Amino acid sequence: MVKLSVCIEMFWRELPYEERIRRVAALGFPAFEFWGWKNKDIAKIQEAMRETGLPIAALCLEPGSSLNKRNATAGLVQGMRDTAAVARELGCRTVICTIGNVFDDESYEITRRRVVRNVAAIAGIAEENDLTLVLEPLNTLVDHHGYWLTKMTQAVDLVQEIGSPAVKILMDIYHQQVQEGHIIHNLTTYIQEIGHFHSAGNPGRNELTKGELNYRAIFQAIDVTGYDAYVGLEYKPTIPEEESLRGALDLA
């Protein structure tokens, strides 16, 4: 059975983050996650975690979307140190890393070499802190026009060249379905390089029970691989949150 983590950025948006954690726990989910940590009251997050016993599955590297930026290595190293400190406070083991957008004035390979250097520069800090960095491909056809990293094969190539046990892939099933499909084939082929999943229905990025993706079959395929980390629910609910999330639980 896959372990589902609720991305609290997407649910109960009118409520404080700490109250969202309590609601996730009340529904019986095993974990929660969020994006950037700089806009969060970490003390209140910790209090809600202690109160509910709910762990955090993942948070994002600050600064985000900077791994392909020019002259950014020093800032990324400091950002990784700061993010590692917050992750330690929260007991979080997974750090989501988005790359950034294409530069029109340089080739893919030039950008790729800089991404490799930047990720390698922060990977040692992740290793020292027992963290896993997960690089996230996104779709450019609907949601993230101009984003640099779009396909699983590209992400695998980066991870294998960097060669750090602390660097893996975040396979977002929704984004990959939009961009290239082959979901079950790709997740089973590359499972050793995957450190986290995100999920949403397609089209629309809504409930897992809506659209063209068979999440019952996808979750079974993940289960068969022996993957034991989390699958994040990162979608926009179209019905009341509790009803929507119970539908996702039923699939797992």
Characteristics of this structure?
8 strands; TIM Barrel; eight-stranded parallel β-barrel; alpha/beta; 15% strand; 252 residues
Put the structure in a nutshell:
With 252 residues, this protein is of the alpha/beta class. The protein contains nine helices and eight strands.
Task: Walk me through this protein's architecture.
By secondary structure, the protein is of the alpha/beta class. The chain has a single domain (3-251), classed as Alpha-Beta Barrel (TIM Barrel), CATH 3.20.20. The protein has 9 helices and 8 strands. It has an 8-stranded parallel beta barrel, surrounded by 6 helices. The longest helix is centred in the middle third of the chain and has 21 residues, at 108-128.
Number of strands: 8
Q: Biggest β-sheet, characterized?
A: 8 strands, parallel, barrel
- The name of the CATH architecture is Alpha-Beta Barrel
Low-confidence stretches at least 5 residues in length (pLDDT < 50)? Answer: none
Distance between the termini: 6 Å
Determine the fraction of residues in helical runs and give it as a percent range: 40-55%
Into which percentage range does the β-strand content fall? 5-15%
Provide the gyration radius in Å: 17 Å
Shape: globular
CATH homologous superfamily designation: Divalent-metal-dependent TIM barrel enzymes
Q: Specify the oligomeric state.
A: single chain
Structural class: alpha/beta
Please write the string of helix (H) and strand (E) elements: EHEHEHEHEHEHHEHEH
CATH topology, by name, is: TIM Barrel
